[in-house]
Amino acid sequence: MSTVIISITAIIALLGGAGFALYKERSLSSWFLFAALTSTALLELFDLLSLSATAGELFWKKCAVTVEALLPPFWILCSLTFARQSDLRKFGAAFKAILASPSCFQSCPAYCP
Fold it and tell me: Which residues touch 54 (CB under 8 Å, ≥6 apart)?
């Protein structure tokens, strides 16, 4: 029961922080911070549902793994834009390809049985 309360508190705190980031400033860096915090909250929610659901545990775990695949690019983009206030157009094509590579791993399980 205490783990459920801790998880729900973490979800509310993450979504509150994401909303505050957009309320404070509507820039590209704030949108990336919003995406990173929201995906982290969704991961926590899906993991909580997969552990506490009586039926459909595998569905919630698949949702959690899908959202977990989105975490690295969102947090890297947040780091590059929010913490450094840089522009993404300054980075080369090789770095952009490395940044997009987790999306390939995310779509791969959908094609494999």
Answer: none
Cβ atoms of 64 and 47 closer than 8 Å:
yes
The number of distinct structural domains making up the chain is: 1
| pLDDT value of position 7 | 84
Q: Which domain holds residue 41?
A: 2-111
Four-residue CA torsion sign, 2, 7, 11, 16: positive
Say which residues have a Cβ less than 8 Å from residue 83's Cβ, sequence separation at least 6.
none
Q: How far apart are CA 28 and CA 57, in angstroms?
A: 35
Dist. CA 16–CA 57, nearest whole Å: 27
pLDDT beyond 80 at 95 = no
Q: What type of residue sits at position 32?
A: F
In angstroms, the CA 19 to CA 38 distance is 9
- Give the burial string for 77-105 (b: 16+ CB within 10 Å, else e): bbebbbeeeeeeeeeeeeeeeebeebeee
Full-model pTM: 0.71
